[in-house]
Structures are given as structure tokens and as C-alpha cells.
Write a structure and sequence with these properties.
The structure holds two protein chains of two kinds. Chain A is an alpha+beta fold. Chain A is 41% helix and 17% strand. Chain A has a single domain, classed as Sufe protein. Chain: A. In chain A, helix 4 runs antiparallel to helix 6. Chain B contains 15 helices and 15 strands. The chains are: A alpha+beta, B alpha/beta. At the A-B interface, helix 1 of A face helix 13 of B. Chain B: Its EC number is 2.8.1.7. Chain B: Belongs to the class-V pyridoxal-phosphate-dependent aminotransferase family. Csd subfamily.
Chain lengths: 158, 422
């Protein structure tokens, strides 16, 4: 196993210099995610216009994988509908957990193929079962933000 | 870089040199995993052949239930079990084997004291003092008692140097202080607490003292009578014994005054539906069939440590800790979490620009096992304002070569993350 499959340049870059790393002044939705096992914390901020994500950002403290995953996530879900964001999460989740959900992995609509490709560098994490939850924390928190609308929601990770 | 420290040779009681490389050969795990650099002994120690084979041999030759059978085999098993209690008593220098209660581990020992001694002797408003260094196992049982009894939990702070602040500690003690429950050696930082002073100050206020010896027993000679502590707990699996067994030491007068905490077989004298009478300590606190083989394995582990020499083990751990401190801090970008100048057997460190979990994953690729996370001490991590640390910890089988491989793994992580010092 080559560590370079996990820590690709794009991961190290986003881990060091995360994009959209700020709070939103007036989010319509937000949620705190916490992985008590390792102490990683992330807060996802969203501004929705109808069902479209028109602004998204995050804050928090975590390892390179969780920071890079949150950073890449904010890039790919911007200007997407909630349904599209959910499809991307399903695809990503299935790919990194390799579980039953992996049936959705090949089923990303063509319109989201480019976004799916952008998440590809993170999928090296599937060879490191103890780190999968680092990669999915931001996504679970995004889901909680959409569902909870700002109320504290327990975030489940792998 | 080669780092030479003078006068490092550690001598065993029989005059032989303490040779961790030879000792390592008594631990089969290293034979089966030849590339392994195991630096997580503070989480759980590996097991010597004497313990593994000795427990199997007990099952093969002397095993039956204890304290029950009239037949010879049960008598032999009981004799082995009670001899194990004597070994623990001798190891801690307790006045009598009846002061030793077998428990599942330090966690259960603390819960036993909280649930038996607590309700019998604490009243609303009474105070239990812990420190910021504590493992969750020495925090949560007292919080549960706070909820149940309305007692207060008082937290003794650390100084800026990472040591328990004894002046602040003394200032927290008062007439309402009934118990001080404190670690002997902090699992996150390796700080050796000045427990002699803690006991003296607590006793001067009429408070009792419980010491959590999980990390101290594997590394320091512990003499409960010299310490004059009232309760002392430790876990077998951290001192080269099996999991699921540990011991609570308590002064006999305290055990005699404490009510049972779990009911069942073995802890009773007579049972009728109208009334039940209980055994004396320690049996009163050991309901149900105990972990018989575990107790025997624990005794074998303590005998193993005595054979190496406990002062020699301490000196070995101290020398290796000094070596690791010097070796790691010589790497640019590496910092140690402060331990008040008295670090033994464990050290937490941080590497600039690399999260501890990324470090641990990279180390694992080098077959270097360290712990990364909050180490079951979230309040301490909050106090230090750190989400996580990486921790290396040592045992009797740890060598300078292990530290060298850790240093090399740190360098590799720095190169991968592009944070290597030029």
C-alpha cells in the first residue's frame, strides 16, 4: 500500500489550504459535526435558495483527510440542488465504504460526472478502514444541516 | 544523528544488566511480528511467555471453581487463587492479603469505591477532588455519584509546566473534602504526580485518598503503606498480565466498614428469603465466580516484573524516556506536551503541520504503533486546547532502536506532508 494513494497532492493541498474555510454571516442552515473518537470537529454552513445551495462554507479542526474532504465537498456542492448533493454523497459514501451502498457508485448522472471525478482523490481512504469516518464527517454534517435546519443534530459517522 | 547519553546502563537486582533486547525474546508477539515497533504499552502491555503459558498450564492442571468444592482439585484451584491475592498484596506491600479485592480492572475498582464507600460515607455538599490529568475512568464514576448523592466534584488544576499545581490543590482542600481521587502517573503526558504530598495534604484535612495506579504500577515500585494512601487501584493488562483482571487495595478498616456493592454467590455467609448475611472483606466484594485464571495470570505477571527488578524497570523506563525526549525534540517541528519535568514511560508529542491521526496512519505504514487521539482524557485535552495528540509509551521490552524507528517515521511523515525542515 502506497501512502501516496491516500495522501495525494490534492488532499495535502486542501488539507493545508482549505477552500471556503469561514463562517457564513447569515446561513439558512448549519450543523456541528463531531467525531468523539478522534476529536475532529466541523461546522457546515449553508445558504439555500429554494432547494439550491447558493453558498456553502465550513469551519473546524481535523486531520488532513477530514479537512480536505470538507474543502472539496464545499466546492462540488456549490450551486447544486439538494437532490444533486444527496446523489454525490451517496456516490462518495458507497465508494469509500465499499458496502452495500456501492451499488450507487456507478450510477452518478452524467451531469454530475465531473464532480464525482473531483472527489476521486479521496477514495484512497477506502483502503484505511479506520480513516473512512474522517472522509465522511463533513458529508454527514451537511446532511444533518439540511435536515435539522440549524438545530443541534447528532451526526453519525461510519 | 546519534545521541549518546552517559551512565545509562541499568542494573538488575541480581547484578545483571537490564537488557530489553533479551527481555523482548520472552514476548512471543515480537517473534511473530518481527518488524513491529510497539510504542503503545500505556494502552495495554504485551504478554510474556510466563503469563501466556502459565495460564494455559493452570487450566490444564489445577482448574476448578474456587471456594466451593470439597474435592482436591477445587482446593488446589482455591489455593492458587488465594496465593495470587498474596502476590498482589506483597507486590503493593499491603499489610494483609485481605486488603486486596480482585476486580476487572482499575475502572471497576474506582466504581466499587464510588458505589460502596460513596453512599455510605458521603452526604450532599461533601467534596471529591480529582485533577485535570484524570482518565475518564476517574471522572465519570464521581459524576455519577454527584448526580446520585448531590456531592460536589472539585478539579485540581495543572500549572503551566504540566505538573499538578500543589499550591492550588492545597487551596481547594477544606472541611468538606472527603476524598481525593487522583492518578499516580498521567496516561496522556507521562507526568508523575507528587502523590506523597497529595496524601499528606489530603490527610491533614481529614480526607481519604484514592490513587489510580494504572500507569504507575508497570513503571514504579509502589508501596501503599509507605504512601499511606487509603485506596489504590490498577489493571493487570497494563503490567504484562491478562485483560479483565485488576486489583483494588483498601485499608482493612475501610473495607470492613464498606457495604457490599454487588450481590450474588461467594460474597454471602448465609442466605434466606428473610435475611442474608455477608462474608468479610475481601470476599464480600467479589460476588460470583471470579476471573480465576486471570488472577493467576496477574500474579505471574507481577512475579515476572519482580524478577526483572522493579527499581531496574523504573530506571530503564526513565533512561528510555530521557532518550526519547532528547531524540524527538531534536527533530525540527516536533514538540512535547509538557509533563512538569517528571515524565516517565509515556510522552505525548505534536508535529507541526501534521494532525496526530495522519501521523498515526503514516506510522502504521512503517509498522510503528502509537496511540493518537484524546487518550480517554477529554477534559485534559480541552485544558491543553488540543483536539488530539500522538503518544509513544514504553515497556520493559522497549529499546532505543524503537525510538529511532519512531524518529524515522516522523521524518517520513514530514517529507510526505512537505513540512520537513530543510
Amino acid at each position: 500500500m502506497d501512502l501516496r494513494d491516500l495522501y495525494q497532492d490534492i488532499i495535502l493541498d486542501h488539507g493545508r489550504s482549505p477552500r471556503n474555510f469561514r463562517t457564513l454571516a447569515a446561513p439558512s442552515h448549519f450543523a456541528h459535526g463531531h467525531n468523539p473518537l478522534c476529536g475532529d470537529k466541523v461546522t457546515i454552513f449553508l445558504r439555500l435558495d429554494g432547494d439550491r445551495i447558493v453558498e456553502v462554507s465550513f469551519e473546524g479542526k481535523g486531520c488532513a483527510i477530514s479537512t480536505a474532504s470538507a474543502s472539496l465537498m464545499t466546492e462540488v456542492v456549490l450551486n447544486k440542488t439538494l437532490a444533486e448533493a444527496e446523489a454525490l454523497f451517496g456516490h462518495f459514501h458507497g465508494t469509500v465504504t465499499g458496502g452495500a451502498a456501492s451499488g450507487t457508485a456507478g450510477g452518478l448522472p452524467d451531469a454530475l460526472a465531473e464532480e464525482g471525478e473531483r472527489l476521486q482523490p479521496l477514495t484512497g481512504v477506502k483502503a484505511y478502514p479506520t480513516r473512512v469516518k474522517c472522509a465522511t464527517l463533513a458529508w454527514h454534517t451537511l446532511e444533518a444541516a439540511v435536515k435539522g435546519g440549524g438545530l443541534p443534530v447528532p451526526v453519525k459517522t461510519e | 544523528m546519534t545521541l549518546l547519553l552517559q551512565d545509562r546502563a541499568v542494573t538488575r537486582p541480581d547484578g545483571a544488566a537490564f537488557d530489553p533486547v533479551a527481555i523482548r525474546r520472552q514476548f512471543p508477539i515480537f517473534g511473530r511480528n518481527p518488524g513491529l515497533t510497539f510504542l503503545d504499552t500505556a494502552a495495554s502491555a504485551q504478554k510474556p511467555r510466563a503469563v501466556i503459558d502459565g495460564m494455559a498450564e493452570f487450566y490444564r492442571t489445577d482448574y476448578a471453581n474456587v471456594h466451593r468444592g470439597v474435592y482436591g482439585l477445587s482446593a488446589r484451584s482455591t489455593a492458587r487463587f488465594e496465593a495470587a491475592r498474596e502476590t498482589v498484596a506483597r507486590f503493593l506491600n499491603a499489610a494483609d492479603p485481605s486488603e486486596i479485592v480482585f476486580v476487572r480492572g482499575a475502572t471497576e475498582g474506582i466504581n466499587l469505591v464510588a458505589q460502596s464507600w460513596g453512599p455510605a460515607f458521603l452526604r450532599p455538599g461533601d467534596q471529591v477532588v480529582v485533577s485535570e490529568l484524570e482518565h475518564h475512568s476517574n471522572i465519570v464514576p464521581w459524576q455519577m455519584l454527584r448526580q446520585r448523592l448531590g456531592i460536589e466534584l472539585v478539579v485540581a488544576p495543572l500549572g503551566a509546566d504540566g505538573a499538578l499545581d500543589l499550591v492550588a490543590f492545597q487551596g481547594l482542600l477544606g472541611p468538606r473534602t472527603r476524598l481525593v481521587a487522583m492518578t499516580h502517573l498521567a496516561n496522556v503526558t507521562g507526568h508523575v504526580v507528587a502523590v506523597e504530598a497529595v496524601v499528606r495534604l489530603a490527610h491533614a484535612q481529614g480526607a481519604l485518598v484514592l490513587l489510580d495506579g494504572c500507569q504507575a504500577v508497570p513503571r514504579l515500585p509502589v508501596d501503599v503503606r509507605a504512601l499511606d494512601c487509603d485506596f489504590y487501584v490498577f489493571s493487570g493488562h497494563k503490567c504484562y498480565g491478562p485483560t479483565g483482571i485488576g486489583a483494588l487495595y483498601a485499608k482493612r478498616a475501610l473495607l470492613d466498614a464498606m457495604p457490599p456493592w454487588q450481590g450474588g454467590g461467594d460474597m454471602i455467609r448465609t442466605v434466606s428469603f428473610a435475611e442474608t448475611t455477608y462474608q468479610d472483606a475481601p470476599q464480600r466484594f467479589e460476588a460470583g465466580t471470579p476471573d480465576i485464571a486471570g488472577a493467576i495470570g496477574l500474579a505471574l505477571a507481577l512475579d515476572f516484573m519482580d524478577g526483572l527488578g522493579r527499581a531496574a524497570i523504573r530506571d530503564h523506563e526513565a533512561a528510555l524516556t530521557r532518550y526519547a525526549e532528547a531524540r524527538l525534540t531534536a527533530i525540527p517541528g516536533v514538540g512535547l506536551v509538557a509533563a512538569g519535568g517528571s515524565r516517565l514511560g509515556a510522552l505525548s508529542f505534536l508535529v507541526d503541520g501534521i494532525h496526530p491521526h495522519d501521523l498515526a496512519t503514516i506510522f502504521d505504514q512503517h509498522d510503528v504503533a502509537v496511540r493518537a487521539g484524546h487518550h480517554c482524557a477529554q477534559p485534559l485535552m480541552d485544558r491543553l486546547d488540543l483536539p488530539a495528540t500522538a503518544r509513544a509509551s514504553f515497556g520493559v521490552y522497549s529499546t532505543e532502536a524503537d525510538v529511532e524507528r519512531l524518529a524515522e517515521a516522523i521524518r517520513a511523515a514530514q517529507r510526505l506532508f512537505g513540512v520537513a525542515a530543510r
